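Page 42, continued from yesterday. The earlier attempt failed because a stray header line got pasted into the input along with the sequence. Redoing it now with the clean sequence only.
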Amino acid sequence: MKKPAINKNARLSQDEIKKAIKWFYYSQLRQRYISQLPQKLDKDIGIVVKSAHPFDDLLNIIKAERPLAISSEEFVGTNTRSALWSLMQWYFKSRNAICFTTGIGIRQNMGKKYTLEHDHIFAYSVLKDSGYGQENRFKYAMAQEITNRAVLTQLGNRTKSNKLADEYLATVEQEFPGALALQCVPPDKTLWKLDSYEAFLNARRKLLADELNHFLENITSTAETAVETPIDELIAEGESDELEFKSSLRWSYQGACMDRRLEEVILKSVAAFANSDGGTLLIGVSAKVAVAAGATMYQGVRAMRISEDQAGLHATLSDGTTLRANSLFPALRATTAS
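This time it went through. Structure tokens are written below.
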């Protein structure tokens, strides 16, 4: 039996502390505890108590559920209540970013008037006059998006006027050289124009995604460990881009007979996973019944995880059996190539 890495009388090493921080960031970003809180807490606490590499295992559980890498699309319409905004603030602080108006470091604690606030880079009053008001929900969300936000001190926010963004950012760059880069503001001045607002958002989304991914990946290295998400948890999570339910491989419950055409449906799902980031196909689960009856009745369900390596596509079953998908489904190669 492996010796647990953590016990009540031991202190965490610096490497373990870094891994715990890395896991914490990803658990918030990927909403590990948004559902099934008691079950997931019990499972994760058990891993911390028993595992020799608890934070590697915990991080790999999250990775099995959702990709860890942050994409630029995740910023679209996202407001300051999101975990992404919290991460942005921590990242800016780690870079010793400063307030755009006062030049004071946002890591410093200097009293109430220096409390941190989030302010629009492109002033909302200006955007509102340009069609980004509440009468258009989509554009209003873009005006409030975290990619249009900077971290300022309360004093700086109160003294900031509603200048046009190009004037405001040019002044910041002149008075505090390098301040914009510390908060991931695109340096291309053509993007600071009001008529380039949406291009500015796109550029900052990409910049933030790249820098936040680099920040998280380099907190510390973590080992790849084989930690599978239990099938009952997968079922309870419901279908998503990485998870699909199929009631049967060949048996038609509607017709009460064998129906080979169902294999084509499975094939399409496999092809879709193969053309994306992979996924898990649960055979023996009906989406409608799973929602109504819960996961406890599915003790015999087989999970098929679709992925790709240098040897081609393969399907890994829940018992560890690996099948080459190209031979399992002869038409797969043609389907994925089309």
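Notes: The beta strands are 116-120, 149-153, 243-246, 251-252, 257-258, 279-283, 302-309, 312-317, 322-324.
Reminder to self: strip header lines before submitting.
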